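Incident log, support desk, overnight shift.

02:14 A customer reports that sequence design results differ from what the structure should imply. Their input is reproduced verbatim below. On-call engineer (initials T.W.) acknowledged and began investigating.
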């Protein structure tokens, strides 16, 4: 939960769009998770540790009420947690839109504005050559881990045309969330972690049917551990104080309550090595 929240907090425009509509969230009983999230945003830089603990505990309880799979204190998948939270915000769209119509205010779903994108799936019949197209909305994309390849390569592999179908971006989001699948099922249907190194670059080129887009890396989450049943999640992200249009090298590494200032160039090489099964370094002193 911590690693997912820290990554979301690097998305300043996304956070601002939630914050500026906070008065509307307060009027919707189903939006208590969003209100708890905003409490975390407000105390993120506070030196008061108890306030932070209270905000995190409240958020955890609100999430558990909406998603029972996160009610205990066992290890959970960070991608599943992040996806559940974003989908919850999207499910509030109808009630928020209805409320805005009554109050004559315009509501814009933060997930749809910043994270959602449309994928086009083209299927071709091998016998007659007839093609059909369907479109579907996503807020993140899961990629197969390919040994010795970069995230750019994995994305391009995902978009490659096969004998019967091809996926392509119909639209591009402001923020693109990519999930590299480090886990797979064996023939005996047990979960196995893939230890191949993932090459992460600071820039990513994404093509759509309408235009091309360059993305700059602002955050990533890594799973540390030797197997799929145990381990630890850490995240790294651009410092929130950085100027938005400046390609900065000022990053922070978040390891629970341990926060370390690092350079983006070094963090891109260090964390993927740790995530492939190498032991993590000893934690630094907590940053207050």
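02:41 Re-run completed on a clean worker. Output:
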């Amino acid at each position: 939960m911590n690693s997912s929240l820290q990554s979301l907090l690097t998305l300043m425009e996304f956070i601002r769009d939630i914050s500026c509509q906070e008065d509307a969230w307060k009027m919707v009983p189903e939006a208590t998770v969003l209100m708890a999230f905003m409490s975390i945003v407000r105390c993120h830089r506070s030196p008061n540790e108890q306030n932070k603990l209270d905000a995190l505990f409240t958020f955890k309880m609100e999430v558990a009420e909406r998603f029972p799979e996160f009610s205990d204190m066992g290890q959970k998948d960070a991608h599943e947690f992040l996806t559940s939270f974003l989908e919850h915000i999207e499910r509030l769209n109808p009630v928020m839109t209805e409320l805005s119509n009554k109050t004559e205010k315009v509501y814009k779903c933060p997930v749809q504005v910043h994270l959602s994108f449309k994928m086009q799936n083209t299927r071709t019949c091998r016998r007659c050559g007839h093609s059909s197209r369907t479109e579907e909305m996503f807020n993140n994309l899961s990629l197969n881990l390919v040994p010795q390849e970069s995230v750019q390569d994995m994305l391009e592999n995902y978009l490659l045309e096969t004998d019967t179908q091809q996926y392509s971006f119909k639209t591009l989001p402001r923020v693109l969330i990519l999930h590299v699948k480090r886990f797979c099922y064996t023939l005996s249907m047990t979960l196995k972690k893939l230890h191949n190194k993932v090459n992460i670059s600071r820039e990513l080129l994404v093509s759509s049917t309408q235009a091309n887009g360059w993305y700059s890396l602002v955050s990533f989450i890594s799973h540390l551990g030797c197997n799929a049943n145990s381990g630890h999640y850490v995240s790294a992200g651009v410092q929130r104080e950085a100027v938005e249009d400046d390609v900065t090298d000022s990053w922070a590494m978040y390891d629970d309550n341990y926060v370390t200032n690092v350079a983006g160039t070094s963090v891109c090489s260090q964390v993927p090595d740790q995530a492939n099964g190498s032991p993590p370094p000893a934690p630094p002193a907590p940053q207050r």
